[in-house]
Model the fold of this input.
Amino acid sequence: MRYLGLDLGTKTLGVSISDESLTIANPLTIIRFSNQDYESTKEKLLEIITDYNISKIVLGLPKNMNNSIGFRGEETLKYKELLTKWTNLEIIMQDERLTTVQATNYMLEADISRKKRKKKIDSLAANIILQTYLDREKGKE
Done:
C-alpha cells in the first residue's frame, strides 16, 4: 500500500507517491487538463491508484495566509468531492501554504533552469505536501 499526494493547479495536477513503508514521498508525474476540466484527470488518476495500490490520497488545500479559504481552496474542495465520487479511498486535506515557494527554492538551490522548474514545480509541490503528511503521521507513532 502507498499514499498518493496531489497538488491541484489551474491546468495541472502534480502527483507524488510514497514508498511502501509510507516514509518517503517521490514526485511521480504531472497530469495536464484544460482550465477547470477536472473530469479529464479521472482516467489517469484511477490508473495510478490501481497500478500503485494506493490506500490514501493526500490533497493539498491552498489556504490564505490568514487561514481562510479563497477561490483556489474552493476549487480544491470541489476536486475532493470528485475524488470521493471516483474512489472509495480516504482523502486527507493537507495545508499547502507556501509549498510552491518551498519547491521553487529547492530547485533554485539545485540550479535548475527556469524552463525545467516550470515543468517540475507541481509534482515537487505535491511531493512536499505528501512528505509533510508522512512526517506528521510518523511523529504520531
Notes: DSSP finds four helices and five strands in the chain. Strands lie at 2-8, 12-18, 25-32, 54-61, 90-95.
